[in-house]
Amino acid sequence: MVRKYGSIFLALLIVTLIVGCSTQSATQSKKDSKYPEHAIEVIVPFNAGGGSDLTVRTFAPFLEKELGVSLAIINKPGAGGIMGMTAVSKAKPDGYTIGLTGLPGLPALTITGDFTVDPIKNFDYLGAIVSDPAVIAVSAKSEYKTLGEVIDHLKKNPESLSYAATGSAGLDAITAYGLENATSAKFRMVNFESGKEAITSVLGGNIDAVGLAVSEASPYLKSGDLRVLGVAGEKRVPSMPDVPTFSEQGIKLSKGFDTATKSGIVRGFFMPAGADEQVLATLRDAVKKAAENPEFKAQAEKIGLPVSYVESDVFAKSVETMIKELKIPIQK
After folding, report:
1. 110 HSE (CA, 13 A, CB side)
2. How far is CA 222 from CA 11, 85, 96, 242, in A?
3. Are 45 and 191 in the same domain?
4. What's the CATH code of the domain at 112?
5. Are the CB atoms for 220 and 196 separated by under 8 Å?
6. CATH no. for residue 181?
7. Which of 61, 160, 204, 318 has the highest Cβ tally under 10 A?
8. Which three-class secondary structure string do you get for the chain?
């Protein structure tokens, strides 16, 4: 009898040890699993060839180096960035889908009510890498040589000059609203699907003026195809030393517009809220290290991309602040 129960006890002990080891092994395996283990999708909410696309594709090799996996860049344009940003909001918060967003576009779309996802509650921010000030430009063949000439003409002849913008809440549109608010001039706004189409329309003589970011305008300024009439901010930008600022030309934008245009397009990365803290920490650290890589900075400088790293918490706070401060007379 003792021998019988001794055998049963021994069998139970073996089963307990096997289950225990199995559980420990599974727990250890989960603990040892590392992120990321495979490619990460990066959603760009605008067409290929624009400033946002250029930013991501220039930055991608350096971010890949830090993360140790490849990035699959997916252009998902539509509705001024809403389609792409909505796609990010609906993705799993597992760190394998991130996106590019920016100021002032995201706050402006939120203010208009066009973008219904809460940018504070529904997103986690990973850090911004570019601060791209606003400029206003005309074709090099244009009769207008200064911003003052454009403003004076519009004061006397409201809406007589057309202005190309990509939607009603992007930096280009906000630049026009800011100038109108400060000078009582009035453009005739014409919307395009992409910055590239807007530039093409100006170069072709179909549109009089266009609002751009520095990086978007730089190649056309260098080639002699565009004449940049003014740049936002208090100081001239290094890549356009001969272009005067708005303030140098006597144009003082109100607080909300001034903040938005001199910061320009602040492009950074975000993802759906709810990710594991380890995943967030890994992504944020990788974005920071890649943004501070001297090779990335050198490459960005060559193409006129103004690198300016912003910590994730500051980036998130900027979104919140701009929603409160930027009261735009949006034209539907």
Report:
1. 22
2. 82, 32, 38, 12
3. no
4. 3.40.190.150
5. no
6. 3.40.190.10
7. 318
8. CHHHHHHHHHHHHHHHHHHHHHHHHHHHHHHHCCCCCCCEEEEECCCCCCHHHHHHHHHHHHHHHHHCCCEEEEECCCHHHHHHHHHHHHCCCCCCEEEEEEECHHHHHHHHCCCCCCCCCCEEEEEEEEEECEEEEEECCCCCCCHHHHHHHHHHCCCCCEEEECCCCCHHHHHHHHHHHHHCCCCEEEECCCHHHHHHHHHCCCCCEEEEEHHHHHHHHHHCCEEEEEECCCCCCCCCCCCCECHHHCCCCCHHHHHHHHHCEEEEEEEECCCCHHHHHHHHHHHHHHHCCHHHHHHHHHCCCCEEEECHHHHHHHHHHHHHHCCCCCCC
Give the residue, 79 or 4, on which the prediction is more confident: 79
188 plus 123 within the same structural domain: no
- pTM for the complete prediction? 0.74
With b meaning 16 or more CB within 10 Å and e meaning fewer, what string describes 246-266?
bbeeebebeebbbbbbbbbbb
Tell whether the model's pLDDT for residue 16 goes beyond 60.
no
159's CB contacts (< 8 A; 6+ apart) are 186, 187, 188
329 pLDDT above the threshold of 60: no
Chain centroid to CA 41: 16
Residue listed under structure tokens 């193409």? 303
